Amino acid sequence: MADPWLALEFGVDPAERIAQVGAAHEAFLTGGTEAARRTDRRLRDVVANSWRRSAGALLSPEATPPVDLTDDALESYRAAHPLGRVLPLFRDLLGGIAQDGAHLMAVCDAYGRLLWVEGHPGVLRHAERMNFVPGARWDEAHAGTNAPGTALAVDHSVQIFATEHFSRPVQRWTCAAAPIHDPATGRLLGAVDITGGDHLANPHSLALVRATARAAEAQLAADRPAEPGVATVSALGRDEAELRVDGRRIRLGRRHSELLVLLVEHPEGRTGEQLGLDLYGDDRLHPVTLRAELSRLRRVLGPELLDSRPYRLRATVRADFRTVTALLDRGDPAGALGAYAGPLLPASDAPGVTRLRRLIDGQLRAAVLAGGDPALLATWTATAAGADDLAAWQALARALPPGAPRRPLAVARAHQLAQEYGLPRATWLQRPGN
User: Of the residues 184, 202, 223, which one is the last residue of a structural domain?
Assistant: First the structure.
């Protein structure tokens, strides 16, 4: 079976494939996904789905990505970003390719902002024409289908070939990228990418970025001092929580994930009745079922981690969702948003988890809206919780100055949401050009 993340199968003529996919792209723009698939039966699912997401973000196929960070703001952000610690490794593994006159090496953060773009000066000049520069926003919502942005969207290494790019100005390029995660928490940190010509559409380029990403994660893990007895919980943006402790990495099922989150949120401990109410609600309290679940959880975690009477975790626990709330308590919405990987256990309907999820999202949203920082507002609207947030899109449109590349998108999205919610056409933005 062919690798769905590779752009070209062995023996396929690149020029012929560029024409076929290009015809499918034009068909998609006029008739949607089904029209594209009728035009090209071999169109990859990862590409078709990405085109749909790009169009859903109201992105024009002629769009050029906006630049979020420049000058001192960019330097400060890069200096503080964890991927800066492995930049020498990226240069060591990919530097030769980046200097051969045909390729670029790029590293982006979890929101698609390019942190470093390196390579031959002539290739860099060509890339500048499409804003493939440090500080530019290359997630799918702002740049359309592309290897680093799509790798972040699907959390998987991927190759994007020529006319598979959604934005026409990018279709002369081919790229391969792989996501990079924090080895301690599993949180997505960003992606590493190589960009060049059609010759990159081969298994070697994809294997290279995959290996580079894994090497970066290994170095980040090696650089982090071990903390015996400290447990780390990741539960944001994922339906099943992950626990890491003493070298073990434990992925929990849905019910055990809910129990673990509730226990983390209440370090003082919870009675069986309290846990039952948080887990099942008033009308579904089943003490026998709860005891069985806790007994199974104790076997998974080990008896040294879970105490009873009351039920509580014995270890020192660091959880990603508590990091977000702690940063908000310290008045650092930018740090909180950077640590926010998505809603808490989004598929859970346990009353206690649902309340906590709404509380975290509500506090983060309020802090972002109160600050009025366009960069934070743009990041919030790129999250699952903020994608349909009318007030946030309106605030972003107001915060961006006339002429800002992203402002038309923000205005259009705000108007679209207002229409979907059955509200009259907005009068909230009294600026020319609307």
Answer: 223
